[in-house]
Amino acid sequence: MLIDTHAHLQLNHFDEDREAVIQRALEAGVEKIIVVSTDLASSRQSVALAEKHAGIYAAVGFHPTDCGAATDDDFAEIARLAQHPKVVAIGEIGMDFYWKNVPAEVQQRAFVRQLRLAQEIGKPVIIHNREAGEAILQTLRENDIRKLEGVFHCFSESIAYARQVLDLGCHISFTGNVTYKKSTLPEVAAFVPLERLLLETDCPFMTPAPHRGKRNEPAFTVHIAEKLAEIKQVSFDDVCQRTTQNAIALFKLA
Fold first, then answer.
1. What are the tens digits of pLDDT across the range 80-117?
2. Which of 13, 92, 154, 155 is the most exposed place for a label (fewest CB within 10 A)?
C-alpha cells in the first residue's frame, strides 16, 4: 500500500475526471490520499471529498500566498473544519518569498496562528516553504516551538536544512522533484532516514519522471517510491511499507 500525503484533488484540474483519477490511484496501490488545502474554499472542498471517499482525508488551512485577505471569521471557520474527524492536519501553512503578493509579516502571523491551532487540537502541520527556509525556522524559534509534529512538504533544501527539520521532530517528503535528472535532491533523500520520509505527489503539480509535462495525479506516487528505493538502496516494498507506517502514525489514519 502507498499513501499520497499531499494532493490537491479539489482543484479544477480534476473536474472532468476526478473519480477516474481516484480509481487509477487505487489500481496503482495508492489506497489513501490526503487532500491538502490552500484557503477557506479549498478547505471546504477537501472536507467534502473526504466525506465522500473512505480512503481520502483532508488538511485545512491557509497557504502563505492565500492568507492576505483572510479574516478572523475565516480563521474561525478553519478551526471549526479542523474538528472534522477526517481532517488529519492543518495545512498547507508556512511562508513563501518566491511570490510577492503577501507581505512577510502577514504570512508570519497567519503561520503562527495556524501553528497554535494545530497545537490546541493536537493535529500535525503540513509546512510549505519556498525561498523562506530561514524565516520559517526563525519564526519557530521566536515562538518557542522546539518540537513540531508535522512534515516539510515538497522538500527542496540542503542536507544542513534537513538536519534542522529532523531535529524539530518533523518528517520530510519529496515530490516528483526528486526524480528529475539534474536534481541534487537525491543526496538529501539519501541523508533522511527512511523512518522520517513520506511520499507525496503535490498533484496536479510537480509531475515525476517519466510523466513530466503531463498533469500529475496520485497514481504517480509509485514513481517517487521507486526513486527513493533506488536512492536508499532498499526494495520498493520496503519504501512502501515504511512510508505508509510513517503516514499512518503521523496523521493517525484509520
1. 999 999 999 999 999 999 999 999 999 999 999 999 99
2. 13
